[in-house]
Amino acid sequence: MNRKVVDSNAMQTDLLRSYLSASERNYAVLNDYAAMEAYKGNTLTSIYCSMEIACEFPRQMIVLKPTGRICALLGRNQGLQRRMIDERQTREFPTFCKRLQAARHGHAYFHEQLLESGRVANDQMDRILASAPILPGAIKELRKTFSPEELKAIRLDEPFPQALIEKSMKFIIDLTFYTISNHPSPPARIRSVDELQNTFLFRHSVATFVWSLDWIARGGADGVRPDRMRNDVVDVIFATYATFFDGLISNDQKAQRIYRDAQFILTMLSHAKVRSLSG
Which residues pair with 26 in a beta bridge? Predict the structure, then answer.
């Protein structure tokens, strides 16, 4: 079984259709931000286009729980993916596709449900947009913590000096615990480093750090439009989800870089843990 997270920009592409048609054991993983991107804007135009391919393969769709609930999940390795999946919505996805078609043909109740989902999606995207202007400043502050040698390594994609590795881990850990302490639904308990690394908030901190370095390598994000920053925030979320599954289907090169580099860091942490135990 192959389970790949689908970025919203890939929902209407031959990339997704080819992946799903290649094998019945290829599954597309949909998170709530994929849904929000499909509903936002002109809902009754965007939703039908966004879900067209998914509705061709309704039994190969896996629907996740809302991100807020996933942030609260424990980090036990056993059953990690299963705890993230919304079993009911996944099971009922074919029914959703039928209701979507009914709405498209004028069914008033389903039509209004779509519009309400669109209003919720627009509200959430507007909240992200409102906070986006602070992000370039945060990237600038992070850049100040690096030495010229470290900035050169970041810019040229060279192996990190030990001091930069230590700063990177400190940033990730500090951001994780800051987020946990300020999140409305943090994990109930974290009993080990293993469980911490399996939480969504830790992996999101890793992906956020990678995203920040991506901007630093390109000279910073000063003057970047808030809507572009908002898109980046969503990219980081998709990349984070992909680390829990078998990769990311996306047309966005930045999202793919964030996923690959975040996955690399998580793999290195796992290997370091194994070496420590064997030592």
Answer: 2
Q: Mapping DSSP to helix (H, G, I), strand (E, B) and coil, where does residue 85 land?
A: strand
**pLDDT tens-digit series, residues 190-218:** 888 889 999 999 999 999 999 999 999 99
Whole-angstrom CA distances from 134 to 49, 87, 214 are 33, 37, 17
| pLDDT, average across residues 133-162 | 94
Strands 248-249 and 61-63: unpaired
Burial of 257 (0-12, 13-18, 19+ CB in 10 A): middle
Is the pLDDT reported for residue 273 higher than 90?
no
Q: Distance between the two ends of the chain, CA-based, in angstroms?
A: 35
Partners of 6 in beta bridges: 249
Strands (E), 52-96: 61-63
**Token pair for 181:** 């302490």
Distance of CA 95 to the CA centre of its chain: 26
Cα 205 from Cα 190, distance rounded (Å): 16
Phi, psi (rounded to 5 degrees) for 124: -65, -45
Q: Are the C-beta atoms of residues 110 and 97 closer than 8 Å to each other?
A: no
Residue 16 to residue 22: CA distance in whole angstroms: 10
Beta strands of the chain (E only): which ranges? 2-6, 26-30, 61-63, 248-249
Per the CB < 8 A criterion, the answer to whether 164 and 182 are in contact is no
